[in-house]
Amino acid sequence: METTVRWTGNGGMSFIAETGSGHAVIMDGAPEGGGKNLGPRPMEMVLLGTGGCTAYDVVLILQRGKQDVRGCDVKLTAQRAETEPKVFTKIHFHFTVRGRNLKEATVERAVKLSHEKYCSASIMLAKTASMTHSFEIIDDLTLPSAHEQQG
Asked: Could you tell me the superkingdom of the organism this chain comes from (predicted)?
């Protein structure tokens, strides 16, 4: 895995990050720090990546468990240290999982497995931040189940 981060040199603090898989994203600093607010802050990208990593795990674990999962959102709320280095000190993950007949214990297990075994990003961040998790399940009855669609 590799990525390249290049300063745009436009008189501000904007950077273009290019991934080895061929995607690009603009990152920028806050105006008070010399940025022009053209993209997310680098530390916001760390949270975004962590959220993507854990949501991916939760969905995959539920799918492999033959659960009828229809959606998964995770909101990360973080606090950072007040002095340099301003590492994350607290991160709360709140999952909203949508599906049909999802069991609370099954969703709880998927979240726990992600954070204790599979999500490399959250496991790394747990070295400096206390992690908490919560979830809610929304029963999605708007579409027929996979079994009903086949019939």
From this structure: Bacteria
Residues contacting residue 100 through CB under 8 Å, at least 6 positions apart: 68, 70, 139, 140, 141, 145
Can you tell me the distance from the alpha carbon of 8 to that of 15, in angstroms, rounded to the nearest whole number? 5
Q: Closest by alpha carbon to 69, among 149, 148, 146?
A: 146
* DSSP-H helix ranges across the chain: 42-64, 104-113, 120-125, 146-150
Residue 28 lies in domain = 3-33
Q: What is the C-alpha to C-alpha distance for residues 7 and 129, in angstroms, rounded to an integer?
A: 29
Q: Are residues 8 and 57 in the same domain?
A: no
> Mean pLDDT in the chain?
93
Complete edge-to-edge strand list for the sheet that includes strand 3-7: 3-7, 15-19, 24-27
Partners of 47 in the β-ladder: none
Counted domains in the chain: 2
Mean pLDDT, rounded, for 98-126: 97
pTM of the full structure: 0.88
22 and 90 belong to one structural domain: no
- What one-letter code names the amino acid at 9? G
Residue 139 confidence (pLDDT) above 80: yes
pLDDT of 145:
57
Region 54-59: mean pLDDT is 98
